[in-house]
Amino acid sequence: MDLITMDDLTNEEAISLLDDAERLLPIARGDVHLPLLEGKVLANLFFENSTRTRLSFETAMKRLGGEVLNLSEVGSSVKKGETLYDTMQMIDGYADVAVIRHPRQGAAQYAADAVQIPIMNAGDGAGNHPTQTLLDLFTIRHGQGKIDGLNVVLVGDLRYGRTVHSLSHALGRFGASLTLVSPEPLKMPPEIVKDLKSSGCHVEESEDLAPAISSADVVYMTRIQRERFPDEAEYEKVAGIYTLKAEDLRSVQSDMMIMHPLPRVNEIHPSIDSTDHAWYFKQAFNGVPTRMALLCRSLGIQIPEAIV
Q: How far apart are CA 140 and CA 218, in angstroms?
């Protein structure tokens, strides 16, 4: 099973993966040892920087008894001019499953078309990041008890942010109402907004964060991504435009969740870290059980109903 965009999963398949991840939590925490993927090899192919995605995939594979090959552009034959196609041909013979992050949108689909092993998209430029979406849905379900019909505010870099591109589509499929908060240059791409609305999702767009959070179930903050800007001056105009502090939360719902795909720069003040609204570090951990579930599913490994 390849996972390039969330369109590769039906709603029922997505829920099934979240249920699998729930059962895998004891293994993710290290409380239970169950080598379901013993003898299997994961190739981590990261042509862009990553901390949480790469490490959580590696942790997921090793917690399940598998092995990991790590490849980056630095120190590989990519620096010598090797094409992505040739790299993937090599990986096809070395690993049973591969995860790829690449700066070029569409690279994950290209890689999947080039090989026989399953490919998971860990971010392709400003395109999609479906494995992040699954861990986000898992986190939301833990905090709200459901993922359908919620009021979600997406904040920050909605133009280049692949996490919010994938997540907005998924939330729309589950009947969420979305408020998109961003400065004008970083608005959600119009084709995504059009798709969301045509599917029946209620969407509002705004540049003002404060009014949007009072009735929110989830506030999903994102970093203004310096590396996506071709012009440093344009980045400086919008850098630091949205920052949440504990004092901003006086009128929010008691169970409102603040999430962030991380790394944060200044979007969430440390004063929020100790509040019940802070979910971003739990969110980062949840990458382990959800990516465990994806690895098992992609390799056709059945997860036991009860893990003790």
A: 8
